Amino acid sequence: MQTYTFHVHGMHCNSCVVLTESELKELPGVAYAKTSLKDQTVRVTGTFEGKTEAELAEEFTAALRPHGYTLSLEKEEKSIAWIDFRYALPLALLLMGIFVLLQRLGVVNLVTTADVNYGTAFVIGLIASVSTCMAVVGGLVLSVSANFAKEGEKTRPQMLFHSGRLVAFFFLGGAIGSLGAVFQLGTGGTFILGFLVSIVLLILGINLLDVFPGLKRWQLALPASLGIRMHGLKNFNHRFTPFLLGVATFFLPCGFTQSMQLYTLTTGSFWAGATLMTAFALGTLPVLALLSFSSLAIHEKAQSGIFFKTAGLVVIMFGLFNLINSLVVIGVIRPVFNF
Description:
With 339 residues, this protein is of the alpha+beta class. The chain folds into 2 domains: 2-72, Alpha-Beta Plaits, CATH 3.30.70.100; 82-329, no CATH class. It has helices spanning 14-25, 53-64, 85-104, 118-129, 135-149, 156-183, 187-209, 224-231, 241-248, 255-265, 270-293, 304-329, and strands at 2-9, 30-36, 41-46, 70-72.
């Protein structure tokens, strides 16, 4: 048994930890893999039949590149593509202008933490589906597509996966909403949860900008070990495995999902919680469906830097709006926005 440590390029959050570890553990000869988001490294142990570190780095990269990661023996010299902001900032401002217009029409609610409506949840779902935080869900979709396609099934597994995801988000979202009723959150409790959601969104947005690598370790997520166990469900070859995988995505380490779960807790209602989380899941559906039935891979697009920075700026604006209005609710500051 030999152990090697490689530098990982392309990591953003705990979803990347789950995805890199899970994929590497499935390779021949690999007995153990441990990824560190803090150090941007992965330690791999196994029997490698005399292969050199450079050969292993190439072999492992071949397995991870479809998910947007590469391995190297040297630490990545991080360079920030500031030029991307030339396009990302105007696009983000345009999108926020559209969102504000939709709010005035009553379609979405961007600035009231205690009253997030279904349009807002759907929009956040759309943003989440193209963020790196949903990489592990995309990886599961691709795995389901590839594994069952080998057996001649190209549609049923994907339908089961997405059905399981929607069912889980409805019933488990409802359960979280009901739990909020038990706690009977007052103004103070609602403020605390709203404040936490705002911070989570700000951290998510800043991480999407990819300009402060050290902030990635502070991103809210369930333990990566839980995500790895859920990801391992794909190895069970049963006709209902895709459905179970869809259910498991409710527990995977995605900060956007956790922020919406915190929102749901403030509703204090099974129906409100169920429909809110379902709206979020429906927002993620278009991109995940494209992943199911195509070879879409946003990480490999030349424009992905602009795309992620635009999404990051939009998420930061979401976070700032909610943070300011959370402070307004408890009377710390006067209302800032009148739209």
